[in-house]
């Protein structure tokens, strides 16, 4: 399959790559050391780079062209290779204001928010002045089925009262996070896909309590963090509701499609760099009297990794192209495919690179351990593998059973 990119897209790919080579890669080790030593604090040079990226027009590149004035004019397909470049250094997407969960929250606010909601929350997010978090997953229910969500959102006059417990609220520990988008139930008696609603909750609202930061394989992932949060009798204006009651499930489905492309392309970028690091490592080290690169098993691992990365890349680009042409609904099976295939591919490719590095591969002296944590986590985040395989298998059977 041949994907044609516009002159603008090709130019942006070169500019993002140049920016990263010049400004981000040289700070990679310093960033890791700072965040390990200073939990929940921002890496000062990163804030300076944000202003530079904004000045150079490398800002909010993720919003598709159909979002109008808020978009830089790229399609999902044109943005995909930019996300892959950012995946080579995981924190770089923040520099370009293209990091989750802000990207999904900005898409939601841009598409579904009122003008007042956009003025108050979307504009500062687009400007990089604040950060946000998305509160959906709950510890007491299997949240991979969004209809299980138990957090209550109850109308009381001109306010809504919110009660519930959330966890894995990515970004909630960030000191710049000022707003949450919360998913809960407004009508438990409605049709199961119309019980849920989404509502905007300022992070400093009375009744919002951060119970603890959650560790990912022992890593706190500072300064973003994932929090467990209790919402106890939190009151917000009724005008904070997104769209109407009962629209939360539909909003969530639309939010997750492009976000999965972003995650998958970042993982492809991380996998590609892991392969490059592996090749350099085995070409420079000796064991048992010869270069490690000369061992057949190493060459086979590198060959398999290269094949798997390219397969994943083409599948993800095909998914982005279909979303652009026909919308999320028509691309849902492809979205499921990339969510199943790409994180697992990344885990395998990165694991081979770690193995080739030996002890260095699991240390903080390379990005490999962070890559692996990201890839393994995405096999659960945004829906575990099993849910996507269940739905994809069901849809595939339906497609052929009546032929």
List the helices and strands and how they pair.
Elements lengths: L6 H18 L3 H10 L6 H12 L20 H11 L5 H4 L6 H11 L2 H12 L4 E5 L16 E5 L2 E12 L6 E9 L10 E7 L5 E7 L11 E12 L10 H37 L1 E2 L2 E2 L4 H31 L5 H26 L10 H11 L6 H17 L2
Parallel strand pairs: 1-4
Antiparallel strand pairs: 2-3, 3-7, 4-5, 6-7, 8-9
Structural features, described:
- Helix content is 50%, strand content 15%.
- The protein is α+β, with helices and mostly antiparallel strands and 403 residues long.
- The chain folds into three domains: 7-126, Butyryl-Coa Dehydrogenase, subunit A, domain 1 (Orthogonal Bundle); 132-242, Butyryl-CoA Dehydrogenase, subunit A, domain 2; 249-401, Up-down Bundle (Butyryl-CoA Dehydrogenase, subunit A, domain 3).
- Helix 6 packs antiparallel against helix 7 (115-126), helix 8 (248-284) packs parallel to helix 10 (332-357) and helix 8 runs antiparallel to helix 11.
- The longest helix is centred in the middle third of the chain and has 37 residues, at 248-284.
